Amino acid sequence: MFGNGTVSSGFSIFFQSIRTDLNVSYTAMSLVFSLSRAEGGLGGPLVGWLVDHYGARRMILIGGITAGIGLILVSRATIYWQFIVLFVGVVSVGKTAGLGQTLMAVVNQWFVRRKGVALSTLMTSFAGGGAIVVPLLGLGIATIGWRDTLMYAGIFIVCITIPIAKVIRSRPEDIGQGPDGDPIEVESPLEGSQDSSTVAKPKSDSGTDGPDFTVKQAIKTSAFWLLLLGLTIRVSATNAVVIHIFPILEDKGYEAQQAALIVSAMFFISIPLRFGMGVAGDYMSPRKLLFVGMNGGALGLLSLYLLDGLPSLILFVIGFSLIEGVTSVNWLMVGNYFGRSRFASIMGFMSLFHNAGMMISPIFSGWIRDTTNSYDIVMLTFMPIYVLGSLTFLLANRPVHPSVNGTTSNETASGRPTTMP
Predict the structure, then answer these.
(1) pTM across the whole model
(2) Taken in order 282, 285, 289, 291, is the CA torsion positive or negative?
(3) How far apart are CA 302 and CA 408, in angstroms?
């Protein structure tokens, strides 16, 4: 919660303070965030492979400490190139290694029947970081300045990473259990595993997961590419808006502290939405939930563009809370569609693409703001893109594993997955 609240959703609160202090343009400031996403895209596949083959525990320890130390170093940066090197080369590397896909891979290993509850709890903690940490960071900037605020945040992340990494286990098999605490039966090792030790499988089949896909098998399905397109659209547009949300709100006439409260309210509302929609993904069609959430983001931007005052603000916060709320549903679909054994590697492969989108969208937004002195074109661009993404999610039916013969579909008309043999 605290790591993602500071490095991801919360770091945009430093946008204006750092930009003013280092005397750089909106485009130059956006470039820093974009390069960090490029690092995530390049590092994601490697991190996924390391997590699948060597476990998540070490990655969480190394990543958390690296991100915390990076924030401490960033707080001392005095020129633009130092800020770029430290944020992209240290903070972002740490986040990629231990604070994002690695945590989701752990949850996907530990749960099958209750995966919706477990994953939505984790993703809710990310939203909680935005809700709880953003006001604290805003208060820190107002009282002790952005440098000391970043320094103390980095120290705190290092301090909480060490005990957390000590109690986390990468897989339930590490303590002699199957997912959901089920008994285990021993099968032959997975091809490509890091050693000759056995791999445990749950005795019971809840029906939420079918046979595990390898990365090669997954990318041969249309569902993979539809999910990837929808994911890329969702995270690219949302990332740009979140990075620029404080200057956007200031352009609308809100002061920095007011903007911090508005963003905090957005994340607070997304807390029950992330949890509720994630749990609902176990019982309702995830495709339809994502369709609703994506269109909610489009309507939120439309209200911010067309309206003024409180009505605009309320509709925007609700719309973007919806799109934040379906985050856990997105990854729940990936886990349910493609299984446990190569989840982190599949996420890493996806990161090559969606981080490229996340790299381009903030620079585009900053360039538009610098050249037009307005964010209107940014909002007009992302609205139809959100609608397109909603349609790609709606079309992403559950794939059939190559080992299943004589089956044309593994999804009911309602969009809920059926039990696979």
Answers:
(1) 0.66
(2) positive
(3) 40
